[in-house]
């Protein structure tokens, strides 16, 4: 579970940022119907942040292991 925590946190962060983007867009253009766009934005931003955090997590794990092997 430890190796999936970063992906879960990344996905939730991306979904939250996508939701905030949709809220801002709905305030700027209240007459637009954003239901389909909202679902796609939440999923894609969640997946993007999940991928980014996964790369960051693997980089830090490799760096930590390299640091331990030199000590």
Commentary on this structure:
By secondary structure, this protein is mainly α. It has one domain. Helix content is 85%, strand content 0%. The chain has helices at residues 5-28, 35-70. Helix 1 runs antiparallel to helix 2.
List the helices and strands and how they pair.
Blueprint: H1 5-28, H2 35-70
Helix pairs in contact: 1-2
- Give the N-terminus to C-terminus distance in angstroms: 27 Å
Strand tally: 0
Proportion of residues in extended strands = under 5%
Shape descriptor = rod-shaped
Quick structural summary:
The protein is an all-alpha fold and 71 residues long. The protein has one domain (5-70). Helices cover 85% and strands 0% of the residues.
Give a quick set of tags describing it.
single chain, 71 residues, mainly alpha, 2 helices, 85% helix, 0% strand
């Amino acid at each position: 579970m430890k190796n999936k925590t970063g992906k879960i946190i990344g996905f939730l962060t991306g979904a939250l940022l996508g939701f905030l983007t949709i809220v801002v867009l709905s305030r700027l253009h209240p007459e637009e119907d954003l239901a389909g766009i909202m679902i796609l934005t939440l999923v894609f931003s969640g997946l993007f942040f999940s991928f980014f955090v996964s790369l960051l997590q693997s980089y830090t794990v490799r760096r930590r292991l390299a640091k331990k092997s030199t000590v």
